[in-house]
Amino acid sequence: MSEFGAAFYGYPLSTETVTLVRRPWTMPEEVAVPAIGDTIVPMEAGREIEWQVEGIGVTRDARALIEARWDRGCFVCVGLDPDWSRLPPFLKERALGAPASETARTPEAGRSAEARATVAFCNAITAATHDHVCAFKPNAAFFEALGTDGAWALAQVVGHIHDLAPDIPVIYDAKRGDIGSTNEGYIRHAFDQLGADAITVHPYLGQEALRPFLDRADKDIIILCRTSNPGGGEFQDLTTGGRPFYQAVAERVATSWNRNGNCAVVVGATYPAELEQVRRIVGDMPILIPVSGRKAAMSRRPSRPGRTAAAAA
Question: What is the reported pLDDT for 255?
């Protein structure tokens, strides 16, 4: 593997084979780039090429990334929930009115107006906020609603975050959780193809089913505990073993699921009393705290004076 490839994104690459996927980039000077099979292909200056190192070859430790952002005083997690009906009108108009000739030779060629506007909106948000956040959290549902172009849009948004701010982790807000073999497919997509650093999951099928997620020590696994929706208490407040179910989830995650030190929990800021109870149970474990709408904070108990969590404004 070439030194140029090993320095890509500013992170060391694993010893696995590096594959190439398409992303426009203009060669600034004569350099050598890694090609499939580790063959070194010389490229002349100024030639337009399309390539990027696949996320599977990049070593990124989710917890190290998030803690580095905390050290900078960044605790706000920005959710990316691009609802087409609520996107700025000028973005929708631009996407709907763009002639085919404008996108013919770009990655947007043939993509729907909804997908192109979604990418533009999310990329503008990340560009405006990346200096101030600890993580970005794209919500799977809003991209899946766009069909096959939604998968393209999601990959573009995550790739833009990695290019713009490689030190900021991406939380894939997908709320996955199924039997083990199905989870393997979710994992391959979220981590090895999309390049996410963390994922939200639900605990209903138990530790055994979630083991494929938990075994990914380099990724943060964020388990739903006490959610922010008004009806969350229907099951989460049910008494089991003399305490609410959400507290049982918190204790199980903290005591037996967190063997790799890569677990976190979700507790909505709409329930501050429950948040306090969960903090007592999980100790220093990170908590993802949905505040309102697309806003969230990610906190942990202060480990030294002056370190406090900040809610999204």
Answer: 96
Among 92, 137, 175, 219, the active-site one is 175
Strand arrangement of the beta sheet that strand 295-299 belongs to: 133-138, 76-80, 295-299, 287-292, 263-267, 220-226, 198-201, 171-176
CB 143 within 8 A of CB 150: yes
pTM for this model (two decimals): 0.78
State yes or no: is 175 an active-site residue. yes
Report all structural domains of the chain as residue ranges with CATH numbers, in order of start: 3-55 (no CATH), 60-299 (3.20.20.70)
Rounded to whole angstroms, the Cα distance separating 75 from 282 reads: 18
Count the Cβ atoms, other than its own, within 10 Å of residue 250.
27
Residue pLDDT, tens place only, 241-270 = 999 999 999 999 999 999 999 999 999 999
pLDDT tens-digit map of 43-59:
344 444 343 444 444 56
Residue 28 in this model has a pLDDT that exceeds 70: no
